[in-house]
Amino acid sequence: MSKTIKFGNIAYPAIAAIHDVDLAAIDVPTNRARSFDPDEAAGLAASIAEVGLLHPIRVRLVGNRHRLVAGRKRLEACRLLGWNAIPVTISDASTDDEERLEEVVENLASFSLNKLDRCQHLYEFKQVYERLHPEAKHGGDRKSEIKTQNLRLDPDASEVFGFAPAIAEKIGMSRRAIELAVKIWTDLTILSRIRLAGTRFADHQSALKEISEQSPADQAELLDLLLAEPPAAQTVADALAVLRNGSAPTPAEKKVAAVSKAVQSMAKPVASAVTSRDVAELKEGIATLSKFMAKLEDDALDSIVAENEERIIASLKRRGRI
């Protein structure tokens, strides 16, 4: 899509000319790949007022109007500052798909997306790329199109996204990471995507993956627990436990489960040396300590907390309490 200049056998990208365009002459499409946050634009406006606009926005000529391709926050920030015109570069995209590809690639390359947005952008890239490059869909016939819906994560499998190596090179991500991100977005329901946007889980891919692996009904129930005020569960694992068992495990139960898992993962000779009696004794010891702590007077408890303050704060942070 982008123009190049050749020197010998090597093609170099041409430097895009920068123009000033009236803000009133720029249209913003309603189906942007990325949601717009007015607060972020306001924050950017303060920065632009201080140091100026460092990077022009990108637009595409459509008739006698300019349509925004990339730079929505910059555009709106300049509107807030009362600018009449803004520096732009002109996209040479000739189709809506090429325009969309430019928008998505620029957002991905900026590394400013949270994990949920990145999953969406990689999904968008897949859709557009395969329309522009039918050969990426294993021949482009209907049978192959169906096959591409099976999002294979085995790096040695023959059925993989033809688009993945191309975008991996552009944004510095592995093919497997791209395929996983696309699978997460595909498996999340539309309602789950909407509810997760702007939450603390939107930037935690492991949580998004766990949620996406559940049925649509379970996704809805998980989010009811996680997004309640106050939350009925702090983690996806806790929310799943509530759905399956009626309650989340206590800290003591989590500790015992972690020890049991660690024992199982040990080499067999080592694991065999740790008996079920050892695990039972650990569980009993944790329960005894919990009872002891519950009976302490405030002064005594404060003394213990003071001596273990850093570990207690770290524990509260891990559990999402602070």
Summarize the entry for a quick read:
The chain is of the alpha/beta class and 322 residues long. The protein is built from 16 helices and seven strands. It folds into three domains: 4-96, Alpha-Beta Complex (Conserved hypothetical protein from pyrococcus furiosus pfu- 392566-001, ParB domain), CATH 3.90.1530.10; 107-244, no CATH class; 249-318, no CATH class.
Topology:
Blueprint: E1 4-7, E2 10-13, E3 18-22, E4 26-27, H1 38-51, E5 57-62, E6 65-70, H2 72-80, E7 85-90, H3 96-109, H4 115-132, H5 142-147, H6 164-171, H7 175-187, H8 190-196, H9 205-212, H10 216-226, H11 236-245, H12 251-265, H13 268-273, H14 276-295, H15 298-307, H16 309-318
Parallel strand pairs: 4-6, 5-7
Antiparallel strand pairs: 1-2, 3-7, 5-6
Category from helices, strands and their pairing: alpha/beta
Largest sheet: 5 strands, mixed
Helix content: 55-70%
Shape field: elongated
Helix segment count?
A: 16
N- to C-terminal distance: 48 Å
Beta-strand segment tally? 7
**Total discrete domains:** 3
Major sheet strand order = 3-7-5-6-4
Overall pLDDT level: 75
Low-confidence spans: 5-14, 139-160
SSE pattern, N- to C-terminal: EEEEHEEHEHHHHHHHHHHHHHH
Assembly form of the protein: single chain
- Percentage of residues in DSSP E strands: 5-15%
What is the radius of gyration? 26 Å
